[in-house]
Amino acid sequence: MRLDKLLANMGYGSRKDVKALMKKKLVTVNDAIAKDGSLHVEPEIDIVKVNENTVTYKKYIYLMMNKPQGVISATKDTRDRTVIDLLADEIKHFNPFPVGRLDKDTEGLLLITNDGELAHQLVSPNKNVGKTYFAKIQGKVTEEDVVEFRNGVILEDGYQAKPAELTILSSDTISEIEVIITEGKYHQVKRMFESVNKTVIYLQRLSMGSLKLDHSLALGDYRELNDVELQYCLSLK
C-alpha cells in the first residue's frame, strides 16, 4: 500500500496533509525519515510512525453500540442525527455503517462496521441468526399469541413472518416479553404484535446470535468488540 494512502486511511488527513507531515520530517518507516508518499509499505510488517507515534493499521473496525432512541440507523440523513454522528472523528474515516436497522425509537444492540461481507451474513435470512428483543406491550400477551408467533404470524400486507420464539415475562395491561426473530422486515416486531391486536410501546434489542448487548454501555456509547465477540462474528463469514 502507498504510504500516503495508509496514513490517509488511518485518519491523518488528506494526501496533501500527509505530504505536509513528510515535509516536516514527522513520518518515518522503519526509523528512516519518509520523504515520498508513493513509497510502498507492508502495513503488517513495516513500522510506520508519525511524530514518534506508531501507526497501527486496521482494515476493518467492529463496534458495539447501545443505540439510543431518536437516532436513526443510517450513515447520513438531512433531518435526523444518525448513529454515525455519535462516533468519534478518528472512527468515521473508516466509513463505517450500521449492520441492519433499528427503528428510530428502538434502543439497544447495534453492530457498526465497514466489513460488508460480515454485515451481509449477519442480516441474511438464510443464516437464521436470531435477534432477541425485549419489549413492553400495550395489552395482555397470552399463550395464544405465543402459539401464533411460533406458527408465523400474518402481517398486514399478507406476508407470513418466519416462526418466532415469544416468551412472556409478565402479562397485564402492560406486558413485558422477549421475542427472538430470524429476519428483519421493516418495523417487524411492531407489525407482528399489531397482527395480534397489540401495540409495542418500548423496544430494545438484546442480542444478535451470540453477540449480546453490553449493559455497561450507556445509551449512545460504543466500544470495539472483544476477541470472543469478534471471533463469533468472523465465524459467520
TrEMBL record:
Any one GO MF annotation of this record: rRNA pseudouridine synthase activity
A biological-process GO annotation: enzyme-directed rRNA pseudouridine synthesis
Enzyme Commission no: 5.4.99.-
Gene3D superfamilies: Alpha-L RNA-binding motif (3.30.70.1560), Pseudouridine synthase I, catalytic domain, N-terminal subdomain (3.30.70.580), RNA-binding S4 domain (3.10.290.10)
Short name of one Pfam family: S4
PROSITE patterns: PSI_RSU, S4
PANTHER family found in the cross-reference section: PSEUDOURIDINE SYNTHASE, PSEUDOURIDINE SYNTHASE FAMILY PROTEIN-RELATED
Listed name of the protein: Pseudouridine synthase
Source species taxonomy: Bacteria, Bacillati, Bacillota, Bacilli, Bacillales
